[in-house]
Amino acid sequence: MKFDLTILMYIIPSVIMFCCGVYGFITRKNMIAILISLELMLNAVDINFVVFNRYLFPGQMEGMMFSLFAIAIAAGETALAIAIVINVYRVVKNVDIRELTKMKF
Predict the structure, then answer these.
(1) What interhelical angle do 31-56 and 8-27 show, nearest 10?
(2) What 3-state DSSP class applies to 96?
(3) At residue 31, does pLDDT exceed 70?
(4) pTM for this entry
(5) Per-residue model confidence as pLDDT tens digits over 49-100
């Protein structure tokens, strides 16, 4: 199997997206920004599914199916997370992670 440099045109932006998502997930204190960072990481993984499927198994569609499944799971996860954020905002009146310790009492 010959190494194709065109795969790097997809993998490098995917790695950058994933690293930006991890950085945002770790450094942000706003719950909405954390959710956006998580979605960025999931989209980078979806790109990798499609690229490796096309590179390793060009005639098959498993990578695309995994990507569609991951997008569906991400949509459900986002809807649930937004519902949680709305409920937290109703109780605490803030979506800052540091303010969530008030909910313990």
Answers:
(1) 160
(2) strand
(3) yes
(4) 0.83
(5) 999 898 888 888 888 898 999 999 999 999 999 998 898 888 888 888 887 7
Identify the domain containing residue 79 by its residue range. Answer: 5-104
Residue 96 β-bridge partners? 30
**CATH code assigned at 66:** 1.10.287.3510
Q: Name 41's Cβ contacts closer than 8 Å, sequence gap at least 6.
A: 17, 18, 21, 22, 25
Domains: count for the chain: 1
Query: What does the alpha-carbon distance between residue 12 and residue 36 come to, in Å, rounded to a whole number?
Result: 20
Q: How would you class 12 by CB atoms within 10 Å of its CB: exposed for 0-12, middle for 13-18, buried for 19 or more?
A: exposed
Is the CB of residue 33 less than 8 Å from the CB of residue 46? no
pLDDT band at 3 (very low <50, low <70, confident <90, very high): low
49, 70 in Cβ contact below 8 A? yes
Contact between residue 24 and residue 44 where contact means Cβ atoms under 8 Å apart:
no
